[in-house]
Amino acid sequence: MINYKHLHYFWMVAKEKSIARASERLNLTPQTISGQLSLLEETLGVALFDRVGRHLELTDTGHRVLTYADEIFSLGSELESIVHDRPTESVLTFNVGIADVVPKSIAYRLLEPALHIPALVRINCHESNLDSLLGDLDQHKLDLVISDNQVPADTNIRGFCRPIGESTLTFFAAPKLADTFEQAFPNCLDKAPLLLPGNASGIRAQLQQWFDRRHIHPRIAGEFDDSALMEKFGQAGIGIFALPTAIKEEIEDKCEVIPIGEAEDLTVRFYAISMLRKVSHPAVTAITAKARGWLARGTADL
Questions:
Q1: Which of 1, 51, 155, 193 counts the most CB atoms within 10 A of its CB?
Q2: Of residues 195, 298, 213, the one with CA closest to residue 255
Q3: What does the pLDDT look like over 21-71, one tens digit per residue?
């Protein structure tokens, strides 16, 4: 059985990233803490820290242990408050990763159900590419990843990838660019400047196939891993861009662009990716249970 005093020492060292600083906080000698950490690692049969220069860095297993230690000592603090009749409001931390190709308004709407669970929630959002986010998820630094792509087949991530909604795509252009079109949609896209999401996006290959089927050959004016940056270039009239039809009105207002056509047979899907754990995070449960209902158009009950 784990010695929870040893686990508490580990928790403090992980937070401080230094045995010396943790010893000051705990009013113990560094030698005592170092010895207790060794006993904990011996009990678990794994290394929890790597020494990098003068600092300690958590191993992959150390990150996992820290996730559980955070929960354990948070509950311990809450228990102490209850025993002593002190009012307490437990705050649930929800660490979520957003693939940078996912439009920000889509990400917000998909995460919004987590704000209505019967607990105070503090959402920590991290934005990066999918590979980086999946690495953090595997190390239990994140509770959930939102992406427009499934987990790549060549990764060793053990978890759930749940579809939580889909939408058709609408193409947008700045008014000054739209005024130059001589043909109706979709033929107006031929040889027109186009802004594309990066290769990491789940929709990139589908867009290319959609163009090929129609023998349309746009001129690629830019490629963007960040959807917000693509929107800015589109607003400036640099090129046409496509985003989910579900946020069509919002994009019109925010970017001052006009919709030039909807690709009804072109669909972008969104996924909630989480690790396999014995107890699901309540925010993850709320998102996967309710999120798919908000897509007003082009939504399929997956």
A1: 193
A2: 195
A3: 888 888 899 899 999 999 999 999 999 988 777 678 888 888 888 888 887
